[in-house]
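tool=predict chain=A
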Amino acid sequence: MGRMLLAGLEHEALDRWLRGLRPQAWTRLTLTDKSALRTTVERARAQGYAYVEQELQEGLCSIAVPVRDGRGQIIAALNCGMPFRVEARSHALKKVLPALRSGARSIERSLLTGAGAVAAAARA
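tool=predict ok
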């Protein structure tokens, strides 16, 4: 989820964040190289999801998608964590990712509807 939120930052803001980052390896698979992390965040931005495998905790993987506001800005992310297994990535992309995207679209629609309702009430 963190990488998806980072993908919503402007390039300059991401640069500042990376400059201040003091990476910590949580597992032997944790990505700690700042250049590689930037590449991973940019990939998440381009593909519209982030998948992480055993970087926070061995035996755990997760996939996240952005939730955007009416201007298209990432304001939140939906995440699903799952046990790692050999076919975890394939399962996440085929089964979990479509469900997360559907959930994000529902939230985005409700945000638009809610914002419109609030604005209409304010004008009344």
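Strands lie at 50-53, 60-68, 74-83. Residues 88-123 form the longest helix (36 residues).
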